[in-house]
Amino acid sequence: MDTLEAMKTRRSSRSFEDRPVPKEVIAVIEDAIMHSPSGSNAQESHFVIVQNQEQIRRIKRFAQGVSGKPPVLVVLCSNKNEALVRGGVDTLEVLRFVNLGIVASQILLAAQSQGVGSCPARSFHKKSIKEILGLPEEIEPELLISLGYSNEKPRQKTIKSAKEVISHDKYQG
Ligand SMILES: Cc1cc2nc3c(=O)[nH]c(=O)nc-3n(C[C@H](O)[C@H](O)[C@H](O)COP(=O)(O)O)c2cc1C
C-alpha cells in the first residue's frame, strides 16, 4: 500500500479482533518511530509499546478514550528535561507536541500499511498512566495509540470541503 492510499483508507478503529499483532508488524511500527523527524533533531520523545494484556487492562482502567480490547497500546511520551536541554524553551512548550503529532501520524500510517487498525486517545489520567508504566517525573505521557486488527465498519464522518480548509496564495476565509 502506498502512503497516499494509507492516508485515504485509514480510519480510527474502536473494536479489535482477539488476535495478536505479529512481531514483524511491531518492527515496522518501531521503524516508523525511529525515522520520524523532530525539531532541531532534539529527539526528546519516548515510546512505551505495551503488549502485556494485564498491563493493557490496568491502563484501560484509567484511559476512558481507549475503546475495545486492543492487543497493543503505544504510549507516546516526551522527556521534558531533554526537550529543554536539546531543543530549548520552544521545544519544551510547543515543539514536543508537534513532534509527537508527526510521529503519531507515522505510527497510524505504518499500521494502516500493514492492515492493522489504530485509534489515538488523549482521554486518560496522566498520573495513573505514569505510575502504571513506571515513568520518571520528567517523562510525560501525551497520547495513547491503540493498535490491532479492526473488528468494525468505519463510522460515518463528515469532512469539510477543501475550499473551507485550504487557501491558495492568500487567506480566503
Ligand atoms: C490528538 C487526537 C486525540 C484523540 N483522542 C481520542 C480519544 O480520546 N478517544 C477516541 O475514541 N478517539 C480519539 N481520537 C480519534 C478521533 O476522534 C478521530 O481521529 C476523528 O473522529 C476522525 O476520525 P478518523 O480517525 O476515523 O478519521 C483522537 C484523535 C486525535 C488526532
Quick one: CATH superfamily?
NADH Oxidase
- Structural class assignment: alpha+beta
Extended strand count: 4
User: What string, H for helix and E for strand, traces the elements in order?
Assistant: HHEHEHHEHEH
Ligand types: flavin mononucleotide
- Helix count? 7
Class, according to the CATH hierarchy?
Alpha Beta
Low-confidence stretches: none
The number of distinct structural domains comes to: 1
What is the CATH T-level topology?
Answer: NADH Oxidase
Q: What average pLDDT do the residues reach? A: 97
Distance between the termini: 35 Å
CATH architecture: 3-Layer(aba) Sandwich
Describe the protein:
By secondary structure, the chain is of the alpha+beta class. It has one domain: NADH Oxidase (3-Layer(aba) Sandwich). The chain contains 7 helices and 4 strands. Bound molecules: flavin mononucleotide (FMN). Flavin mononucleotide binds next to strand 3. Flavin mononucleotide (FMN) binds next to strand 3.
